[in-house]
User: Fold these one by one.
Assistant:
Number 1:
Amino acid sequence: MRKARYGVTIAALGLAAAPAFAGEPVKIGEVAPAFTGVDSNGETVGLAQFKGKTIVLEWTNDGCPYVGKWYRSGAMQALQREAAQRGVVWLTVASSAPGGQGYVDAAKANADTKSRNADPAHVLLDPQGVIGHLYGAQTTPHIFVIRPDGALAYMGGADSIASTRVEDLQKAEPYAREALEAVVAGLPAPHPVTRPYGCTVKYSS
């Protein structure tokens, strides 16, 4: 069995490294797939309502140690707040199916947001995996950045080091941050497609 860094078994953590869905994948420079979903406060949220804004989609799983690295360190929350200050809409998406690791109902999603001191604009509940499959999200975290004109500018990992160690954040290339800052400045993402890493999204099918 192949091993991940630091002696952690890849299969044991459900680590995934790249999208593997059949069908037409999302592509950089093309219009991001439209969707409508319900957030943790019962509000209907559609991508179209944020027309003209930069949008970040962040796939999450509260039981995933790779997600935990980002939230324990405070790095994800800091990036969410910086994004909001720049007028960026941050949408956290939970696509785990009922019974799967990372599944949350509205109450649990709001409790997680509060306990993690997170600050997304919305937490979208996607237990059927509709939004996740639409984008081909495979890991948690998995980040997508959409330009104000609606085109996809970035998809991939939150950073460059596939580990669960907080200290590695200081050494990693901050792919998500670089992409966000570039798009806000009207520039292309330095690395528009990178290898996502993390726990596999626990889809229902």
Number 2:
Amino acid sequence: MKKYTKSFLILLFVLSKAILFSQSSKIKAYLGEKQYYSPQHGNYVEFQFQFVGYTFKYEPFEDGLRGKVRLNLEVFDSDKSVYKDDYALYTPVMRDSIIDDFFEIKRVVLSPGDYQLKLRIEDLLDSTKTVQATKKISISDLSSEVKLSDIQVNENVLKSDDVNNVFYKSGVLMFPKITSFYSDEDKRLPVYFEVYNTFEHTDSVFALAQEIVDRESQVSLPAYSSISRLKQDEVIPVLKLIDISNLQTGNYELRYSVLTRNNDTLVSNSYFFDRSNDQGIVINENTVLIDPAFQKSISGDSVAFYLASLIPIAQQSEVKNIIKILKQDNDSLSRKHIQAFWFGTAGAKYYEEWLKYKNQVLYVEHLYRNNYMKGYETDRGRVYLQYGAPSMVVQRDVSSSEYPYEIWQYNKIGRFSNKRFIFYNPDLVANGYRLLHSDMVGELKNNSWQYELNKRNTNTGTVDDPNQNVLPTYGGNANDYFRQY
């Protein structure tokens, strides 16, 4: 079994069409984009902003506090400006000194094609707080054939007849959720999208299929699959509320497809999201039936060892349970937990999968243990157990400038391709390798990894380029190896 940790921190990278713009400790704002179509106006993009409230300055207003933000947007087609807006936006009045995030939406009509958005945000109450960014935009043609808009998930949806409100659409006020991470506090997905041009098709009745797919296993979850009926129309708004309270931790794809009466797929669109749900394996000593063969595979003096070895592949809630049971030093409960863990993970094949994993644990114990850590506790052991054996390993124990290091390259990890990990041994202690950097989602990202690897004889670079002073040296090939494979 292979799992990977989930990314809970979003810093300066695109995530499901959302990006966080930030400079140092100044303004922070999320930008999302969704594309729609209107028969009256044509194709348009909806720029959705979520401003991180505490990063702005406020002044007294009525019985609370209010801020003022300047928003400057300009859209370019090559070097030609095709849209520009520059205006001031008042924040909602913050009551009782509670500073919440606030939102804004700008809808811009654009013909199909590729564009570039230039954005500038300024705190008008503190001129030192500004942020600028650019973003590429691609507009598809939704004006003909059966098409779907982007899928929008909302923070909140309220019935309303306030057609002049910027958040109004199809009879409701929708406040978009810009990021695509859902904690165990998120119980529902309020989903909105639109279906276009069904009247152009020969069929008069269509089906709308919904499914949630585990992105690692590519298995569709039956509890979240449904089919509803659609009739012909120019624009069909779809608003759904999906209960995810029992959806376990993982990376998922919410997929909608329009089907003909013959079950042929006309069009599909997806929304990708990450879920952290603190629901682990619940152990009830009275309901766990001991499997003699399973328990025989765990010797009496290694129960705690094998229980702790589950941590690299366990969900966070399960890790808490494991640590709690380890502290109790209860051999019987530990055995039951190990068996229940594998039954909950692999079902009928729990014994077979356990034996495979046990062999991997013994393998990393032999290769990666050191004087103060067991094999599965080391970074290399954890990565091996979590993702499996690497496709290729580059190992360098001696270099004129670099600490000893290893680069692991994986051809495939779940849905990800060509992912790499670099481990190094800065203390020069036998087998004391640590993870220095990886380009795998959810793993340690270290932009100054080259500097850290060459730290014995390299001066610190700048904030903008921490590797500035890392000069080529004889035998210093880590960067070449990392980029090559």
Number 3:
Amino acid sequence: MVYPKDSNYLNLLFQDIKSIQKIAVLLNGKMRTPKIEALYRLIDWLNARSTDKMLKLSLDNSSLGTNPWFSGFIESDGNFYCEFKLNSEEIATRIKGYMRVSQKQSYKLSTLAPRYEEAHNNSNFSLMDKIREFLDVKNVTEIQRNKTNYIELAYEVRTTKKLSCEILINYLTKFPLFSSKNLVFLDWREIHQIRISRKYKSLEGTSKLIYLKNSMNTKRTQFNWDSLNNFYC
């Protein structure tokens, strides 16, 4: 069931047992964070209601570049950005194009649930450090995220250098995004190409840069869903 959460979001709710079982099967063995504790609780709940018991698989420690897990993570917690200045001749300077992902520093384990060994360490640093390593980024940065009624401590990784951006572009070409964020990525990729080729040094190139930036994220007004034609089966 799909229903609006507020003016900006929709919720997708699964309630029937067959759908919940399928979700558990799809997630089992694919989790990479302490949130595996919630999956284990779900599997325990399903096993208590079925004679066909599901084994609880361990955290996935495979390389991030070998599967689409990181693509899904970016869908949820990643954002693409472009920044630049205009000089006196209206030519772009000091161009920055990067993707950032952030995650709260620790996962809050349920006080009512068993302390599963896989989720005993509830820090998300290890995951973020693996993302840093995969993208060839120097550091995982500690940041603060402003929430409605509190400030949340989080970790952040940014692809600020050319190599990191190109690793990400190659990855997302192989394992594409499927939400409207894919359209943002395509614009961001074109911005990166303009930056590297230095085409921004002409008025035409700067105009293209401005156009692309003004179509990203919340400024986008045109959408298409062609990417869903190749959605994972």
